[in-house]
Design goal:
The longest helix is centred in the N-terminal third of the chain and has 11 residues. The protein is α+β, with helices and mostly antiparallel strands and 91 residues long. It has a single domain, classed as Sandwich (Immunoglobulin-like). It has a six-stranded antiparallel sheet with strand order 1-2-6-5-4-3, with no helix packed on it. The termini are far apart. A hairpin with a 3-residue loop joins β4 and β5. 16% of the residues lie in helices and 55% in strands.
């Protein structure tokens, strides 16, 4: 598949091209919201840490009073007091 076709599909779906081809993306807004695109599911869910499976690693959202506000296939919104977001190799 060509990148122009994939870009067109990504535009229609409202996604980043990297998310569509298997990568992930996250964005932090105001230290209180994290949007994760391209995850493969939840690994851990606590008030101080929410971890998402990625293709070859884990994305950890750390903070206090964390909760998942929205969860769909490959897309999630975590809210709370965000202190850090990091990707680490799976163990």
């Amino acid at each position: 598949m060509s990148n122009s076709f994939l870009q067109c599909v990504a535009d229609i779906c409202g996604l980043e091209l990297a998310t569509l081809i298997g990568d992930y993306k996250y964005s932090v807004f105001g230290g209180h919201t994290v949007v994760v695109e391209g995850h493969k599911g939840i690994v851990d869910y606590r008030q101080d840490e929410v971890s998402f499976a990625l293709r070859k690693s884990v994305l950890k959202v750390c903070g206090t009073d964390l909760r998942i506000r929205c969860m769909e296939k490959n897309f999630a919104v975590v809210v709370g007091n965000i202190s850090s977001v990091e990707a680490a190799d799976e163990k």
